[in-house]
Amino acid sequence: MLVLLIGALAYFRAPVLFWTVVLAGWLASLQLVWGCQVPLAIWVVFGLVAAVLNLPILRRAVFTGPVFSVFKKITPAMSQTEQEAINAGTVWWDRDLFSGKPDWQRLLSFPDPKLTAEEQAFIDGPTEQLCKMVDDWKITHELKDLPEEVWQFIKNNGFLGMIVKKKYGGLEFSNYAHAKVVTKIATRGGTAAVSVMVPNSLGPGELLQHYGTEAQKDYYLPRLAKGVEVPCFALTSPYAGSDAGAIPDYGIVCHGSYTDPRSGQRHENVLGIRVSWEKRWITLAPVATILGLAFKMYDPEHLLGDKEDIGITCALVPTEHEGVCIGRRHFPGGAAFMNGPTWGKDVFIPLEWIIGGRDYAGQGWRMLVECLSVGRCISLPAMSVASGKVASYATGAYARIRDQFGLSIGKFEGVDEAMARIGGFTYQMEASQDLALTGLDIGEKPSVLSAVLKYHNTERMRKTLNDAMDVHGGKAVVLGPRNYLARAYQAIPIAITVEGANILTRSMIIYGQGAIRCHPFVLREIKAAMENDGGEFDKAITGHINFVISNVFRSLWMGLTGARLVGSPKGGEVAGYYKQLTRFSSAFALLSDMAMFSLGGSLKFREKLSARLGDMLSNLYIASACLKRFERDGAPKEDLPVLKWAVENALYDLQQAMDGFLANLPSRMLAAVLRKVIFPWGLTLKPASDHIGTQVARSLMELGPTRDRLTRGMFVSQDETDPVGVLVPALKAMLETEPVEQKLRKLARDGKFQSVTARERLAEALQGGVITQVEFDAVSRARKLKRDVIMVDDFDKKLELHDEGLLQRLIF
User: Fold this and answer.
1) The pTM is what?
2) Which of 370, 459, 499, 775 is catalytic?
């Protein structure tokens, strides 16, 4: 009975005082109710322990004080850049997932992201028109840039000012609308999407709105909103890529003279900074008119104060300013967006050009990481979602249209398996981003979730496009106007590398930030140690111990019962998913604490273990986001297969990450105990079944609501000469004429035709009265559209296109 009582107290996370009262009552009941004599010594020991646990003065003297002394010695010091990165942004739903006891009603109560009438009109109007103007083959193969008329359309219609407030002439769209605009453009062409998204992401516009002086805002924001200024932001150095805090670019505070290129006015002997820099991989740098520049600022002559090393600083520098060098460009694989280097040597700028003015000198790193938590939720995740939508839309139709061995290739199980991944990953990507966008639009800056999105969406994009390429086969191999996959496939390494390389993001950032920011007690303990606050440490460590004990019992109980007795906010087929997520949230919290307990400060250097812990948190988030999306869509039964695939595979990946973590935890005894607690019956979760995968694949090949929801928001040309636009008309035509084609195949097998070719047999069937003229016309059209779908481009030796129209006239 005592074991059950302790288990119940731990499971429900009873406070220490409640423990004391209940256990005292239990001891008293033994003596008064059951007649058992409780020795005085037991009461004395119980009283002493209770006093120590419940009286802060005694607790600190006997227990938490000595622990605090040891904790201060073993806690590794954090650099300023680490502190600023950890303090950046906010924690939101990720904190619930770290708690071991997620509040599912809270998740379901988050508002569903919606477009305003103005935002929807922009997507249906200017965004649709922009997509129609984009010819991605011409841009990437011939022009290596957007056409001038496209650039002007982007500027004239406010695409560069989606985040700028209306009082400065911008559109002031929600983060959700911003992402959906980028997604739609990206379904048409990556070059156009990148050119639009970068000025609205991490860069001068975002930084100015948050930190700029009023004078800077009043001058630059209207010009940015209208495209008068084209911005770029120069952070990355050849010598400091992922370690952006180690940029070698520097500026020295001094007096100097300069001519303001905006006014032409000469300024003599003013206080400013002489800056030298060399940057690489800067998007829009070759065409930028205003350069956001990050550099380390020093004041050796103490012209600003006592501090010499002021820190990373961000400034706005007109690219026409004397000494600023731009104009060269890189050529990122598969894309033609403007990207290039910028450099300068001893370029003098006034202090007023610092973003935020003199008061924000040295605050650049904090500014950047705070804004990055927003940008990383939008740009690259939106590009990833767009790739998933195009892959789902095109591969589903192509796999149904294309046949081999007399059967649509989508009905072969190997292709079916790849298509299930395409649909499932697309569902996961959009659900994960939409939930994060909800957080952004209610005022959160979820820095940990932005890292989750950046890594997992771009990795799923990579897998999705790989599968789409495999299914399309030769259709996707040959470059040309008909190929709607290869450019995105070629450009995958760009998304994997930028805004925090994926290896770094997975192995260091997701859990490195999450363990400190999202954990209910760790950050409080670290801050207490840094501030030498024994009282605060006492409160935090006491709560932490109770938290660990609770998660041990919760993980064991839910492991033994398969979480069947856990509550769920929803019934039916999704109830079990909520229960399993609750179970694994507790298990994750327990593993996280045991990792920090057993490895201490060295955990930050055990990147493989940290990566697996990050995978656990990420899959908890992805699965919960999918459940949220399912409810947001009205819990449609048609979507159950894709939901099951998405959630069951996320849960399986979560289980495998835990298994890998336990297999490699250095303390083997601790790992063995944890395995028995968390997996008392072994690894019981399986990935989604083949049957579910087949249902997902079939939903992509059918014109139905699931396919529509997976691909909503993408651009599809209504022109049947467009390589994507022809897919659905061809699919419809094939489905409508399938009975006639089956009749013709049966006649051919029975030897009823004198003709040899399919075209001649069709004519013979018409002449023989086997089919009607309407059927003849429908089959002829369906076959022509099918040919349009499966054909690839061919060129002469000089890579000039052949007259495909001539070839079609010869055949049809």
Assistant:
1) 0.93
2) 499
